[in-house]
Amino acid sequence: MGWNDELSARSARLRDALKDDQEFMNQESALPLWVKNLMAMQLDSVANHPAGSRWYASQALAAGATEEQLVEAIELLYKFAGRPAAATAAAAFDAGG
User: Fold this and answer.
1) Residue 97 has pLDDT above 70, yes or no
2) Sign of torsion, CA 35 37 61 77?
3) What angle do CA 56, 57, 63 make, to 5 degrees?
4) In whole angstroms, what is the distance from residue 81 CA to residue 45 CA?
5) Per-residue confidence at 62, pLDDT binned at 50, 70, 90?
6) CA distance 15 to 8
7) Rounded to an integer, what distance in angstroms lies between the CA atom of residue 40 and that of residue 36?
8) What does the pLDDT read at residue 94?
9) Which of 60, 64, 66, 95 is the most interior residue, by most CB within 10 Å?
């Protein structure tokens, strides 16, 4: 059971909020899915959440982002959030988990 399942089982408000987040992230809008996921990867990196960074990077690639775009998103992250965030984003390339 993942963290979101644990919270959803304990709070209807959190369950609904997490469901809304998931629906937003999984639908095309003004931003293509791959862009949304690259942005989420950057935000999780700033928050020092390597597992989330890795997951969003994989979702971006699955939605059509290229590795070159992933690298550029990390370069942009580095310019605005610094070395610690870029180091967390490097988890995007860790296929091990």
Assistant:
1) no
2) positive
3) 85
4) 9
5) very high
6) 4
7) 6
8) 82
9) 60
Please provide the DSSP assignment of 10-79 as one string: H-HHHHHHHHHHHHHHTS-SSS-HHHHHHHHHHHHHHTT-HHHHHHHHHHHHHTT--HHHHHHHHHHHHH
Which residue reads 């644990």 in tokens?
6
Q: How many residues does the chain have?
A: 97
Give the DSSP letter of residue 1: -
**What are the structure tokens assigned to 83, written together?**
């070395």
Mean of the per-residue pLDDT values for the chain? 92
Dist. CA 42–CA 48, nearest whole Å: 10
* pLDDT for the residue numbered 17: 95
Averaged pLDDT, 11-33: 94
Instruction: Indicate the SS3 state at residue 94.
Output: coil
Contact present, 46 and 73 (Cβ < 8 Å): no
